[in-house]
From TrEMBL:
It comes from Pseudonocardia ailaonensis. It holds the Pfam family Methyltransf_25. Gene3D superfamilies: Vaccinia Virus protein VP39 (3.40.50.150). This is Class I SAM-dependent methyltransferase. GO terms for molecular function: methyltransferase activity.
Length: 252
């Protein structure tokens, strides 16, 4: 059983509206450009495909895209969209579920690997990505760098969004590497709602070790989809690992 939160029907119904900033062309287009260049003619597989924010525009470029998604209500929203029925989606856990075939690209965006709240599951997610890759294929994740330097002694919370309609605060447990993202939203009817998502944060170096355990080697790390250099001040990273061409028999 996965430790991930499972998006229920009401949450899935609000997901696109609550995440509208992530659908903006300035945010989405660079991600799709980056992934399309790596996928080539494909095929590509998205772990935690959700409502198809990335999968659908990538498929619209002619790349065969499949997905794995834990939440059936999220998949139902994807199915309602233009092009959605043509994207095969397996409802299951991205750490263990096996989609048919081999892929030139497996990708996992917008911090979604952190939905797996144990280190063991995160290691298995890397291994599952490697199992799906054709020799020479790439595994890509987009992930935030925990802003722990912004935590004064004794403080456990960091705001990440402050606005009239949305206040977001992350709380951290430095012992377990767990965090909770709290979202307070003002709805159009004036009501206030609170929701929370639970995560396990991962450092870039820890990701590299997980990749090595899966038989993958680091190919590239940048700060964002625009390929800004990754530095000690970067608040996020886009990392690409490659399955060596001679590694066919090493996938576990």
């Amino acid at each position: 059983m996965t430790s991930s939160d499972v998006w229920d029907d009401p949450t899935a119904e609000r997901y696109d509206a609550d995440s509208a900033e992530m659908f903006a062309p300035g945010v989405l287009d660079p991600a799709v450009d980056f992934l399309a260049a790596l996928a080539g003619p494909g095929p590509a597989l998205e772990f935690a495909v959700g409502t198809g924010r990335v999968a659908l525009p990538l498929a619209a470029r002619g790349i065969p895209v499949s997905g794995i998604e834990l939440s059936a209500p999220m998949v139902e929203r994807l199915r309602r969209k233009a092009g959605g029925p043509s994207v095969p989606v397996l409802v299951g856990d991205m750490a263990t579920s096996r989609a048919p075939g081999r892929y030139s690209l497996v990708y996992l965006v917008w911090n979604s690997i952190a939905n797996l709240r144990t280190q063991d599951e995160q290691v298995e997610c890397f291994r599952n990505a490697a199992r799906h890759l054709a020799p020479g294929g790439r595994f890509v994740i987009e992930l935030w760098v925990p802003p722990l330097r912004r935590l004064p002694p004794g403080q456990l919370a960091v705001p990440f969004a402050v606005g009239d309609e949305h206040l977001g605060i992350d709380t951290y447990d430095l012992v377990t590497q767990s965090s909770v993202s709290h979202h307070y939203r003002r709805r159009p009817d004036g009501t206030l709602t609170h929701s929370a998502g639970r995560f396990r944060y991962i450092w870039p170096s820890e990701c590299d070790l997980m990749a090595r355990l899966a038989g993958l080697e680091l190919a590239e790390r940048v700060a964002d989809w625009d390929r800004s250099p990754f530095t000690s001040e970067s608040e996020s990273h886009v990392s690409v690992w490659r399955l060596p061409s001679a590694a066919t028999g090493r996938r576990g």
